[in-house]
Amino acid sequence: MTTASPESGTNAAIPDAATQIDIYRRMSLISQNDEAARKTVKSGRLMMPYYSPKGQEVIPSAVSVNLNDDDRICTIYRGTHDMLAKGVPLRDLWAEMAGRVTGTCKGKGGPMHVTHPASGAILTTGIVGSSMPIANGLAWAAKLSGSKRVTVAYFGDAASNIGAFHESLNLASVWKLPVVFICQNNLFGEHTRFENSTSVDQISKRAVAYGMPGVTVNGNDPFEMYAAAHAAINRARDGEGPTLIEAMTFRFYGHVFGDDDHYMTKEEKAAALAKDPLPLFRARLIADGVATEATLAELDADIRAQIEDAIQFALSSEMPPLEELTRDVYAEAGAA
Ligand SMILES: Cc1ncc(C[n+]2csc(CCOP(=O)(O)OP(=O)(O)O)c2C)c(N)n1
Question: Which residues sit with their C-beta closer than 6 Å to ligand 1?
Fold first, then answer.
């Protein structure tokens, strides 16, 4: 087991320039999309429960550049960042959030149940801890069929206190499943602070009980996150079994949109905002000569236009007709 300090930043493999820009592109997409989602709900144009992933952009962005289109992810209600990083198209995502027929699930899943198999986003769940056993099932299927497909299970720190976490890590280890468990430790579970609900100071320490590598990394450092994901995904793809990655991060807003986040101290929130990973990485790319300000500005503007287009598309699409209510719930008679 290797356990790195969350602040270490050392031993991180540096991704090549194109990959660095790709990580930035995904982060910008997530961040701008989050801003658009909060604005759209606040303006009353769309009513939905919304769980902001703002502050957590690095994690799925640095993970997804290591995944193929064919690889799978299972995520949670706070998962728009994971889905966008994996490639769920904006129009399909927004239409599903708005409950329209053009959405990923024909408008019947809604924001907490987005599924888009074509991009590998198989599960979004509101049941805390349930992304892990389902990821195991997908990984087991990949193993049985002899495919090299890897599945990533994303979940929060509080989910590591649920039975399904422990059962899933145990089984994945015994069966050497091609799965990577990525805990996004944003230091809060709903309105409860991490230290008030979790028996260990690092969730990665729990990996030792299940005979798999466990690592804690700074999930706001793109290079450190990239290196950890790269190693774990390669290990899974090579048939060597699962890894637990604990990615330290901080969510900038309350649990759900509208929550007054009184359980965060002003000081810790200010410190986290001062280290917003998006502007930091943007400045680093320019300072390192990886990209120019003009290139990144163009990339940001292009994303902004795509998001605006997706919102218009979603809000002008039809709601599902009543007949859809019981369709896709049970298999049609005679279907294979
Ligand atoms: C099995 C289950 N228990 C309780 C809840 C209520 N609940 C919803 S979100 C949440 C907190 C989860 O926190 P964490 O796993 O750390 O993820 P985060 O929201 O911080 O991303 C709880 C307890 C639930 N949805 N499912």
Answer: 78, 126-129, 155-159, 186, 188-190, 255
